[in-house]
Structure formats: structure tokens, C-alpha cells
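Chapter review: from sequence to fold.
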Amino acid sequence: MSEPLVLLPGMMCDARLFSYQLAVLSRDRAVTIAPVTQGDRIGDMAAFLLSQLPDKFALAGLSMGGIVAMEILRRAPDRVTRIALMNTNPLAESPASAAAYEPWIVGAMAGRLDEVMTDFMRPEYLAPGPGRAQIMAEVQAMARSMGPEIFVRQARALQRRLDQQKTLRRLKCPALVLCGEHDGLTPVKRHQFMAELIPYAELKVVENAGHLPVLEQPEATTEALRTWMAQPFVLQ
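The C-alpha cell string follows.
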């Protein structure tokens, strides 16, 4: 029987981010969409999830979800049977990039979350085309549901996150590194770098997608996840 699959959403996103993947992948395995909201440090979020999840599981995270996934892998490598890192970043924030969160944090605390999200998740991070506006509206809707307190918590966690390059170099399970070809936030070159860190990782660049390929190109992204889930445990 296939191992359970845990999906971790990006910042200010909830289960709606993975609605297509849940519908398709849950036909033949247990699929859990787990929150990355418990704590104001990435380590706290990972510790909470490890206390809730099965003994062994496949793990896929997008954007901030990928950052939490790498911390889970660092803390409990024997529990992760395979990992997919989507539109994410293994590097710690620089002092300048960490400081860039402060105006957004102030804005969210002042009741301007919609304005903050418009600046935080920009249209040019997605692939061009008629579907971009609808996806941006979905992102805003998810953010409103989560609220400003979670934004502040997640932003603080990202500001203080660890560099995970060493974690990736030590990875010994089947790994997928996936991104959209038009990702303006975590570009393809960053994912090429990540894939080179991981022994035997597969790099998948999704055409006509940007930072949210799970919404922009759900069929292609889900097929890549299905292929990754079907890989044998040859590296373990």
C-alpha cells in the first residue's frame, strides 16, 4: 500500500491551494493537507506537525510549505519516505530580505491585510495569461480567511529561518524539485541549484506556470507528483 502523502501549503494559503491534487491523489492513498501556522518559528511549525503526523509519510511543500518540509526533513529524516519541494527556497533570509518583511507586518497589524497581500504576492510572480486574475483573487480569499495574526506569525518565522543546504545534501530518499517556468519569486535557477544539492533529485519545470503551479497548471503538476510517488525507494 502506498504511504500517506502530506501536503504543506504556502504562506497565507489553506487547503484550497491543493484542491485539485487532493481530489486526484486521494483516490489511491491517504492525503493530508497540514497547516504551517502553529508557531512563530519554522522549527515550532515542524515540531507541531511531527507530533501530529504518521510515523512515516511522503512530504510535499510549496513555497513556505517547502521551507517547513525541509525543517521536518532536518529533524526527522527517517520519517520522510520521499520529498517534493515546489516553488521554494533552501536559503536563509539575508538581513536585507528579512527587513523587507517589516512594512508588511506593520500593515497587517494595522488592518491593511488586503493591501499587504497585493504587494506580497504580485501578479508578475505568476505566468502571464487570462487565468492570472482569478488565481490572484483566490490567493486574496485564502489570506482573508487566515487573517493578519497568521500573516505576522508566518512572516516572523520566515525572517528567522535556517539555511537548509546541508539538509538537502544529506537527503537519501526520492526527491522532486518542481517550479513554474515563469516563477518571479523563486525562479528556475534557484530550483536548479536546489536539485544539484540533492543526490539524484529530479527537476521538473512546469510550462505556462509561475509561483503557484498547483493552481495554474493543476493537471501537469499533479502528474509530476504521481510520478514522484510511484518511484521505488531505491535510495534508502
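Two observations follow directly from the output. The longest helix spans residues 132-146. Residues 178 and 201 are 10 Å apart (CA to CA).
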